[in-house]
Design goal:
The complex is a heterodimer of chains A (373) and B (269).
Chain A: E1 18-27, E2 30-40, E3 45-49, H1 56-64, E4 71-76, E5 79-80, E6 91-94, H2 106-116, H3 121-134, H4 150-162, E7 168-172, H5 180-197, E8 200-205, H6 208-214, E9 217-222, E10 225-230, H7 232-237, H8 242-247, E11 254-261, E12 264-267, E13 270-274, E14 279-285, E15 291-292, E16 300-309, E17 313-320, E18 323-330, E19 340-344, E20 350-353, E21 369-371
Parallel strand pairs in A: 3-8, 3-9, 6-7, 7-8
Antiparallel strand pairs in A: 1-2, 1-4, 4-5, 9-10, 11-12, 11-14, 12-13, 13-21, 14-20, 15-19, 16-17, 16-19, 17-18
Chain B: H1 2-33, H2 53-61, H3 64-95, H4 101-113, H5 116-130, H6 136-140, H7 147-158, H8 162-170, H9 175-186, H10 188-203, H11 207-212, H12 219-222, E1 227-228, E2 231-232, H13 234-254, H14 256-266
Antiparallel strand pairs in B: 1-2
Helix pairs in contact in B: 1-13, 2-13, 3-7, 3-10, 4-7, 7-10, 8-9, 10-14
Classes of the chains: A alpha+beta (373), B mainly alpha (269).
């Protein structure tokens, strides 16, 4: 649907790099964003991911200049813009509600930023026509926002951002008001648009699928602090904390409190050999990495309490001691409710976390982990 | 079922009675104004034969055209000024955060609670010193800031989507430009409705113009020309009062829906 750049009609000028240094936002005693450092490179698709209230939108608004930070700096292309108004930052923003001007037609909504720059009327009309053609909005130019569907409004909001040729695009959950089908389609189109424009995108979402499918890097926030920054593969495969491990993945990673003594990590129903010094640990393993086993290599033993059908896959919910462990596999998974199961995982799919801080412990080598019969 | 019907009937009877009680004085005003000069004291509910002599008499005795124009100027300028001041103040209170904001807003609201009689004398003295007594400007200027206007517009602006203001800032508009290109067009129905209310309010004002204007330059004051120590000249008095009411009634008839809207939107219903 988005054809920006494909016909050579919408051109983005050299893109911006954004640096965030020690950025903090306090509302009274509450730190909504706490000491965040982040480098967003030219042309990067950075997704700020986290649960509601984690500070991701606040961080984006500080980058946009809509909210002055309590502390810290924002640099765009190396220039300190911390105290510059939004107009002085050359950034475009797409809002969650799209924020279309209700009294203006689609054409005037898209052309609004250009009129603010006193661009000649002819040039504005030409530019608006270009963007509208690229976004399949040409037939809707005379309509008012209330006469558009959610998807069309979203494209108008995007058009209003595109028309300015900004240094970077900021997007605050732009897909959250779309239905599931449209969201999936628009996700792919946004990624394609990013690839074609090569522009810097900073995208806020609480949806891990959006983050995993679109981002070149993900910055995961929790309680105003950065938990981890990395490629989608890095944050999924090597979560820096139990928070990241649980936030990414459906179902989330299984986390088990274990005690490591004499090279064997144990808990009720859990027995894993780890060649590490004695200590308490949190052992993590993703549901899709657990396999049913009948042999001596079982790490977890328990019984199935329920099986959920996801269509192509099933999730078996198992009671392992007092803990709940989920196993995801192709349908049919095999055991049904009430059956006893033994589970194993490859060694390199095990994750270890500090029991108090929840931070990831040193990467494990194959030799350090083994199973006991 | 019968109880429900009887309740409905009694409800309508009460409403009808209240309606008649409200409308009757207005009917009596026009009925009296249309009686022949000799029948002014008549208690007959229907003015018959109809006569326009009282209107002609009023037109001859006082400068009705000039008075109506002055009243219209005062009403429109006062309403426009109150709307503008209300818009600026409400925009500032809603959009910006500044020290003492809450206190300042409370003072604004508090000024609404101060009785007119308290501010009347200081305003009068100030006008006297400025040389604005007995001028139309003297009637308008002290009423330009209406706490009610600020209060109502702030209420509307509080519900205005903040993202629209932020989008305008991102699109390169200053606060001033945002006010005129985003806020005012989006609030046009509210501003129109509130404007009508303020015009009616200003049109119906009697006491303050009576204090400032020594000559009866407004139609509301022109009425008193027919009141004297030797008795009232009821016919022309009722005719002038009837004429003074006509613009408000006309405004109400044409813009009935907007006026009701203004009350509904302002939460004053």
């Amino acid at each position: 649907m988005f054809r920006a750049g494909s016909s050579g009609t919408v051109q983005i000028r050299p893109v911006s790099a954004i640096q965030v240094e020690k950025l903090t936002q306090r509302f009274g005693a509450v730190a909504a964003v706490d000491d965040v450092w982040l480098d967003i490179a030219d042309g990067e698709f950075m997704v700020l991911l986290g649960p509601s209230g984690c500070g991701k939108s606040t961080l984006l608004r500080m980058i946009a200049g809509l909210l002055p930070p309590t502390e810290g700096r924002v640099l765009i292309d190396g220039v300190d813009v911390t105290h510059a108004p939004p107009q002085g930052r050359d950034l475009a923003m797409v809002f969650q509600s799209y924020a279309l001007y209700p009294h203006l037609s689609v054409a005037r909504n898209i052309g609004f930023p250009l009129r603010a720059r006193d661009m000649p009327k002819r040039a504005i009309e030409a530019k608006v026509a270009d963007v509208a053609a690229a976004l399949d909005l040409a037939a809707l130019l005379d309509r008012r926002p209330r006469e558009l569907s959610g998807g069309q409004r979203q494209r108008v909001a995007l058009g209003r951002a595109l028309v300015r040729d900004p240094g970077a695009f900021l997007m605050d959950e732009p897909l959250s008001n779309l239905d599931a089908k449209l969201r999936a389609g628009t996700r792919a189109e946004l990624s394609a648009l990013h690839d074609r424009l090569g522009a810097t995108f900073v995208y806020v979402t609480h949806d891990q699928i959006e983050a995993m499918t679109m981002a070149t890097r993900i910055a995961l926030l929790n309680n105003g602090r950065l938990e981890q920054v990395g490629t989608p593969e890095q944050v999924y495969d090597e979560p820096a904390s139990t928070f990241v491990a649980e936030f990414l993945g459906t179902p989330p990673m299984n986390l088990l409190d274990v005690t490591l003594r004499s090279g064997v990590a144990t808990a009720p129903g859990v027995t894993v050999r780890l060649d590490l010094p004695d200590r308490d640990l949190i052992l993590g393993v993703r549901p899709e990495h657990l396999q049913l086993t009948t042999g001596d290599e079982a790490m977890l033993r328990g019984h199935v309490t329920r099986v959920e059908n996801l269509g192509s896959e099933e999730v078996a919910i198992c009671a392992v001691g007092a803990a709940t462990v989920r196993v995801r596999a192709r349908r049919p998974i095999g055991p049904r409710a009430g059956d006893t199961v033994a589970l194993r995982a490859d060694r390199f799919h095990l994750h270890l976390f500090h029991p108090e801080t929840g931070r990831r412990l040193v990467p494990l080598t194959h030799q350090e982990i083994s199973c006991v019969s | 079922m019968t109880t429900k019907v009887s309740r409905q009937v009694s409800g309508h009877v009460v409403l009808g009675t209240l309606g008649v009680l409200c409308v009757f004085p207005i009917y009596w005003l026009y009925a009296t104004s249309l009686r022949a000069p000799g029948d002014i004291g008549s208690l007959s509910p229907l003015p018959w034969p109809l006569s326009l002599d009282n209107y002609a008499d009023a037109w001859r005795t006082i400068d009705l055209t000039g008075m109506l124009v002055n009243s219209a100027v005062v009403a429109v300028c006062t309403a426009a000024g109150q709307l503008l001041v209300g818009l600026f103040a409400a925009y500032a209170f809603t959009v910006w955060r500044f020290p003492g904001q809450r206190l300042l807003y409370l003072l604004f609201v508090g000024s609404w609670l101060v009785p007119f009689q308290v501010t009347m004398l200081p305003n009068y003295v100030l006008l006297s010193r400025l040389g604005l007594l007995n001028t139309i400007a003297g009637v308008i200027v002290p009423t330009l800031c209406s706490a009610l206007g600020v209060l109502l517009l702030r209420q509307h602006l509080a519900g205005f989507p903040r993202e629209l203001l932020e989008a305008a800032a991102m699109d390169g508009r200053s606060s001033w430009a945002t006010l005129w290109t985003v806020v005012v067009p989006a609030l046009r129905p509210v501003l129109a409705a509130l404007g009508i209310l303020l015009v009616i309010n200003a049109w119906n004002e009697y006491f303050w113009p009576a204090l400032v204007l020594r000559d009866n330059a407004m139609v509301q004051l022109g009425i008193r020309s027919f009141m004297g120590t030797e008795g009232n000249d009821w016919g022309p008095l009722m005719a002038t009062a009837g004429l003074a009411c006509l613009p408000v009634f006309a405004l109400y008839l044409v813009l009935q829906r907007h006026i009701v809207n203004a009350f509904v939107r302002s939460g004053l219903k």
